[in-house]
Batch of 2 targets.
Target 1
Amino acid sequence: MTDYSSLFVPLLALLAAGAGAGFAGGLFGIGGGFVVVPALMLILPLLGASPGEVTHVAIGTSLATIIFTSLRSVSAHARRDAVDVSVLRSWAPWVVLGTVLGSFVAGRVSSVTLAMIFGVGVLLFAAYFLIPAKAERRAFAAMPDGAVRMSLAGGLGMLSALLGIGGGTIATLVMTSCGTPIHRAIGTASGMGAIIAIPGTIGFIAIGLAQPGTPWGSFGYVNIPAALAIIATSMLTAPLGVAAAHKLSPALLRKVFGVYLVVVGVTMMTNS
């Protein structure tokens, strides 16, 4: 007989991770993967994940949750007229192509290597949050097009698939550097999550099918029970993050989140 009482603590942790991911997604225009992946790395072994598969399942499950967090966040931003649909449409094909490539690469590296990639990536993103933002400073005349857009969008998709994130940080940085107001950049970036997460989730399901060592309830490298628990609370808190983004100056929160990313990045690299 299954001891369901042993699932109580992991369930609470998953619900808390979902709440944090949803709020961060709405506030910063990110998919929440920087919160979800580290939490899943700790929780999934309690659900039966083997050390050799835990990073892949954490990233695949994170991508699945981002689909819903992103859709919830972008709809809330759209109601405030803060989403540039034309940018999403023009970037989408190249983002999807990069995401598929990233999923392919993830299927050919070990869990330790994937954890190291995540740790390095998190430390790079930490700099974005810790360095004082210059959101209104225009570095480029307009949003890139042609080969530059193809390269940026493809790289965004590939990196996001490898890290299990929604790519909002890079998208926000590019848009604000091109003169897009910060709130509109965050709103548009929140829509990138679903564009990345849908093909990314499919990719991690495909590369994880028939793999031994995945925890109970997994479909490929996506753990369905964990994803549902995280989605349940992230859907509730994403609009709260959106409201905070439009009402508050996020300077202090950026610093706190940046320090959190440093801790996560160092921990992932030292424990991998």
Target 2
Amino acid sequence: MKKIKSVCVYCASSSKINPRYFEAARETGRLLAQNGMRCVCGAGNQGLMGTLANSVLENGGEVLGVIPRFMIDEGWCHKGLTETIVTADMHERKERMAQEADAVIALPGGCGTMEELFEIITWKQLGLFLNPIVILNIDGYYNPLIEMLHNAIGENFMRQEHARMWQVAQTPQEAVDAIQNMPVWDKNIRKIAAI
């Protein structure tokens, strides 16, 4: 295990969602700040992304936002972050967010959030990302996705060992505890990436 100094949080920009998800974003932000962990996020100013960033900042923490130029042009960028990195496109954004992270937490979200989560799990399977990944399963939101991952293992698209690439947490506190206690992944596991 290594000390977690920087946590990438994947989350939605939608504002028309259950208030429970906003509570989870606020609590996650508070916990990251109180534990001295920098938050890395997509630099959005709306939805869970904006709520998360505001909570980290309000609690004395730091937020690094990574956002592609076209999103700035659309007016979607949070203007009060500690630091903002502008990328050429979404691919560069995701790569930079992963480079800056000692761990990943996925809050509830839509296609973009799930795509980011699946990509970072894939990178871990290939030994390209070795850090903790936690799925924050607020109110069972991710139950179908978690079931699908286990189904992929059951159908031999992945190995049983790959189930250790992520952990599932029910609360922000469980998520923060999990990233601090998960061991660093062995990059040699890529030798069993294919079945």
